[in-house]
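Technical appendix A lists one of the benchmark inputs used to test multi-chain prediction within the project. The record comprises two sequence entries:
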Amino acid sequence: DAKTTQPPSMDCAEGRAANLPCNHSTISGNEYVYWYRQIHSQGPQYIIHGLKNNETNEMASLIITEDRKSSTLILPHATLRDTAVYYCIVRFPSFSSGSARQLTFGSGTQLTVLP
Amino acid sequence: DAGVTQSPTHLIKTRGQQVTLRCSPKSGHDTVSWYQQALGQGPQFIFQYYEEEERQRGNFPDRFSGHQFPNYSSELNVNALLLGDSALYLCASSLVLGTANTEAFFGQGTRLTVV
């Protein structure tokens, strides 16, 4: 699976948009970008994933650059409850691919939403 | 709809003992993965079970073993516990659709302390 690079920490004011970047310059054509977050002492929570088109759900938006070498997770109106470690993960979705069966977590970005 | 449930939530064991952790996947999911998360680090993949077989394994010794039951629930067993096995153990479930794994949903984890 392609490796990802994220800033170790970011702050965001409550009510403002939080934009979390991720670099994945070695991503291959069939690999998806997944985002998870982990609130302190809880299990990781799935947020969103995408291949090459921008995606939006009730939690967030995912913007993937045209060359797919980087992406940005956007929390449109951050709240204090969004304070968490955010993980960007690149993986093949195919079950037949040996490396696709696991999620490889890096260090993530600690997002702190400030009141 | 119940999510992923793990038991127990906390556990204290002595070095050299054996421990069994349990996981019930999200309703409708057929695949279970186990992760170990040491303090301050991202989760590390241990292994994944599908159709009651271990399908992929991370870089963990044979002291770590598992099982999946016909109802898709799973157990993680760790023998000859070491102090370094102290960690949050996470279970994640997903569904195999054709050749693809859907996104994984995590339980809240079992906090294992080895003394």
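Chain B touches chain A at residues 4, 33, 35, 41-45, 48, 50, 55-56, 58, 88, 90, 92, 96, 98-101, 103-109 (CB under 8 Å). The mean pLDDT of chain B is 94. Comparable benchmark entries are summarised in Table A2.
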